[in-house]
Amino acid sequence: MPDMLVKLYELPDFAGLLDELRGAGVEIRPAFSFEKRIVGDWITAHFSASWAAEAERGFAATPVSTLVAVEDGILLGFGSYDCTALGFFGPTGVREDQRGRGLGTALLGACLKAMWDKGYGYAVIGGAGPVEFYRKAVGATVIEGSVPGIYRNLLKAQPLEV
Ligand SMILES: CC(C)(COP(=O)(O)OP(=O)(O)OC[C@H]1O[C@@H](n2cnc3c(N)ncnc32)[C@H](O)[C@@H]1OP(=O)(O)O)[C@@H](O)C(=O)NCCC(=O)NCCS
Questions:
Q1: For the chain, first and last CA: distance in Å?
Q2: Atom of ligand 1 at shortest distance to CA of 132?
């Protein structure tokens, strides 16, 4: 999975989508620090423990750099930035039965806008799985030669006796 590059100075305007979702009862916002356990456990259950560890890194930042999609107190999805590495977007994920509602695009757009506001000119989507999704949503382009990128010589789960 290659990394992708996003021009933050040419981001589409996501305000309409965010308003539409708000009207439908879904808020996209930074998580609160006291929600860290809920978010981490949810990501582990729906995705993986390593994605949870990355997203939990965002709770050390001010403002928190893990954003959540919330409807009636229920977590539907999340997106993180400055977690895997500085300047990186991700991980991100939407609950399987909620996909296709625009939540993934809204989380992506809100995170990238936050990165622009923070002062970045470009964002990197680390190890982009759904390349077409990112190309279509924000005009992201594949970074040639970015496999395995930073993801090399990674630790495996360690036997306890080692
Ligand atoms: C990728 C993901 C976050 C998208 O979330 P979502 O809420 O379904 O996205 P949206 O509803 O905003 O989709 C917007 C568009 O992208 C398309 N799209 C969604 N997922 C896609 C994928 N994996 N590949 C290609 N296109 C995709 C949708 O079909 C939709 O197209 P449309 O506007 O023509 O209908 C979600 O599919 C997911 O959680 N995937 C598993 C985790 C993952 O791969 N995370 C990314 C790691 S880099």
A1: 31
A2: 25
